[in-house]
Amino acid sequence: MQLLVIQRILGILLMLFSVAMLPPMLVSIIYADGSLAPFLYAFAVSLITGILFWLPVKSRKQDLRLRDGFIIVVLFWSVLGLFGALPFALADQPSLSVMDAIFESVSGLTTTGATVLTSIDTLPKAILFYRQQLQWLGGMGIIVLAIAIMPMLGIGGMQLYRAESPGPVKDTKLTPRITETAKALWYIYLTLTLVCATAYWVAGMNLFDAISHSFSTIAIGGYSTHDASMGYFIDKPLIELVAIIFMLLSGVNFSLHFTAWRHRSIAGYFYDSEFKAYLIILLVVGVITTVYLDFKGVFDSTGQTIITSIFQTVSIGTTTGFTTHQYHLWPGFLPVLLLFTSFIGGCAGSTAGGMKVIRFVMLLKQGRREVLRVIHPNASIPIKLGGKPVSNRILDAVWGFFAAYVALFSIMLLLLMLDGLDQITAFSAVAACMNNLGPGLGEVGFNYAALSDSAKAILSFAMLLGRLEIFTLLVLFTPAFWRN
User: Fold this and answer.
1) What is the DSSP string of 18-47?
2) DSSP letters spanning 394-449
3) Structure pTM?
4) Measuring CA to CA, which residue among 398, 375, 376, 370 is closest to residue 385?
5) What is the average per-residue pLDDT within 290-317?
6) Does the CA dihedral 107-355-322-138 come out positive or negative?
7) Tens-digit pLDDT profile for residues 186-242
């Protein structure tokens, strides 16, 4: 374990993060909202702390090992959640406790979108922008951004990329060099954000809302600058259409976007088995939702039923968490169906949460193989994706992930119920946070303000587990990791 190297990199990353306080400071000056001081203090504290970490060990430039990468990633997301909470804790409006500020910060950075805030429409513009910016930075991962510039600082990035990057297969690179891969991902991410913001603006949002919502749409975060979320723009259906398109795009593996851009062809999408499964799942859930809402007569017209059903299905299915209506109050089984869809989430290598479509597909294929093995016990039945057999190592990793997911989910569910939450609220809160979804059912249908500090701490841990795909965080709790 190279503790001094870890300290140096953590200091550099904190100094980089301090720059995130500058855009909200500019927004505060432009709108004269009186919230400049909290960001100025947060900038100074983050920068000075980073310098104090970095300065004594600035000459330590050894190559990183994989274990070092895991520690840096976990430390950085944890520390970042604390430093990111500073503006919320220091601001007069909103007036948040330390735990509430940490919850809001972690929720933003992990692109969960669960909030403790109320009266969002009345908050200072700088605070609103900062929340959206946190999600945008967390969407692709600040560490991936750091990898793109770390070579200039003498730091290798492959270990960080493998530790932080989501998905069951973490060694796939778009380009031969990891730095170029990180840059390619960020170029695509930035381009999608700019196009999304422009589309929102053309569709009827003002410039501030368009930029802010593009951040949370591409990051699949779900924070909004309004209490009503996307329901604030209910009289402008074109905005819902824009949101649907960009939520769908952001839930797709970014390597497919890169391939499509490089070859100037979209054919690659439809050769990808995960992408096809992703569309089929959302289509089936969307049809069920539309038919049931129409049957129950929830909305006045079939057109409104269709657009609302598709929007909410894509929003919840991709774990974005935007709402146009209070879906948790919809009749029958629909709220639970949509919540279950978030367990699947988006594609691996996307900004979406959940277990990922590719894992879900492999679990189904493995289940089907076990049924066939009962009928033909001596048969050799390979599992294939895209016509290629999947190695047993990957299958074992998927089953291990699923087992760890269920075990941790159950433990946190029981802890929340022990804290006094009812079954529906506890179950949906863990699901919404661990899947990085945001809105839940029951008491957490609107926000998480009423929960106790202990419940918020548990759910903050659940968000980090979901963002780091469980094993990156869980590995630090194993004795084997700390042995030489």
Assistant:
1) HGGGHHHHHHHHHHT-S-HHHHHHHHHHHH
2) HHHHHHHHHHHHHHHHHHHHHHHHHTT--HHHHHHHHHHHHTT----SGGGTT-ST
3) 0.91
4) 398
5) 94
6) positive
7) 889 999 999 999 999 999 999 999 999 999 999 999 999 999 999 999 889 899 999
